[in-house]
Amino acid sequence: MIRSITQQKPEEELDQLLDGLGRIFVIGCGTCTTLTQTGGAPEVEKMAQRLSEKGKIITGHVVAPVACDNLTRDALAEYGDRMDQADVLLIMTCAFGVQNIARQLKKLVAPALDTLFMGQETSAGEFNESCTQCGTCILGETGGICPVTSCHKGLVNGPCGGTNDGKCEIDNNKECAWTLIYNRLKDLNRLDAMRKLRKPRNHQGELSPGKFKL
After folding, report:
1. Could you tell me the strand order of the sheet in which 2-8 lies?
2. Mean pLDDT in each 10-residue stretch from start to end of the chain (214 residues)?
3. Does this model's pTM top 0.90?
4. Which of 66, 122, 162, 207 has the most CB within a 10 Å radius?
């Protein structure tokens, strides 16, 4: 399952965000940040305790079932009075959740986490980026392996000169994405796809800010 991968902001940055804001309500998320242990119940409680030790008044804390859901406001309704008492909502969710809560609750919000990428758990506790949502997908030509996310350099026309014995020159423990692509295409009898020269990658496949309408 694809998740938003996050990490906690440095303590110094959090202190700056909360400077002058004495009453805080902390909100986590029951999906992505619970899975990555950056905004689940234990992390929310630890954050509330740490802020309390710094002299902040914690009006309450809760883990929303799904912070980026359109029903977030309804899910948090029972905490309305405690949130109203707070100067700011400290959000321990991905950026989608922060924006969603700000829109629905119309309260000052502060993100406690940085959103890194959309990723998939590949082994216990390890998450790898699976898609940058670049808008220029070439998976059909690379055997279903994305070189943009699998290659440190994001190369779309084969391996660089630094690949060695199928390993990446930037990370010797990482398989070279284009070696993986070659082997996959070979198994599929589609090596001819690697002979196609692709134009330099469009780093802005979709106009920003993105918008899509059926």
Report:
1. 2-8, 113-123, 126-131
2. 86 95 97 93 98 97 92 91 96 93 90 88 76 79 88 88 91 91 92 83 60 55
3. no
4. 66
